Amino acid sequence: MELNSEDIAYEFFPFLRVYTNGRIERHILTSRVPPGLDPITEAQSKDIIISADVNLSARIFIPKMKGSKKMPLLIHFHGGGFCTGSAFCPIVKYTLSNFVSSAQIVALSVDYRLAPEYPLPIAYEDSWDAIKWVATHVHGQGYEDWLNEYVDFKRVFLGGECAGANIAHYVALQAGLVGLDRAFKIIGLSMVHPYFGLTQPDRLYQYLSPSTSGTYDDIMLNPSVDPRLGRLPCVRVLICVAGKHMLKSRGLDYYESLKRSGFCGDVRLVETEGESHCFHLLNSAETNEPFFRMLASFMYEDC
Fold this sequence. Notes:
The protein is α/β, with parallel strands linked by helices. Helix content is 29%, strand content 24%. Strand 4 and strand 5 form a beta hairpin. The protein starts with 7 loop residues before the first strand and ends with a helix.
């Protein structure tokens, strides 16, 4: 039977649908909002270009200042299964505006390119390029004034949710393996509901990363098989899992693997019982306050 050009070739609910003519329809996290002053928190945000050659950009957030002391930096990687979402989503603006305001930090959310138009590992490569670009600001002479002026580069944290947590792990490990300017110190890694595959094999990951197996022998989906795992450069890692979501088991696997890896830092596990995946992006600010207070405490510990 001849296929109609609008027949469905792949369905990856809830992320995207792919048609036989190549058209891609994303189901979630597709809207964008401009940067600017948040009227409630008075946090400010603006968009910055990291590399015009590959259209790599980011959104940076700063709180209303409560003094002149420089602040920790959170480099954030958004979720969305590697194939949807952006640093410019309303949910990212709302969450990071609130978080930088309450925690008194600077946050930079990386808008890496999405698969399948840009197959994996492009999202990983973009994110690593973003880290290197941020590190060019450590001596106060970088391109972005907010980084030069407000960031304490001895207190850098990497973090993300879902696929963004997977990416945060990857770029942290790259920093440990390759090295960056010694003045750029990655203190912590926060992994919120990390995505390391749902099934065996993971059909979505196979489609988005056609050069890999999509199985648990792939180090991008299963860090426990990576002999370099213990070379993370940070001094503490926080792994958060949601009690009601299927990704919980993969987060627990990451926690146990990191403890066995020879990593010499502090590894912590936080399970939020009764909650589902990425609840911290969906619930009200009041409901999420204890969770974000815990994340802020993780960043300011020993500072």
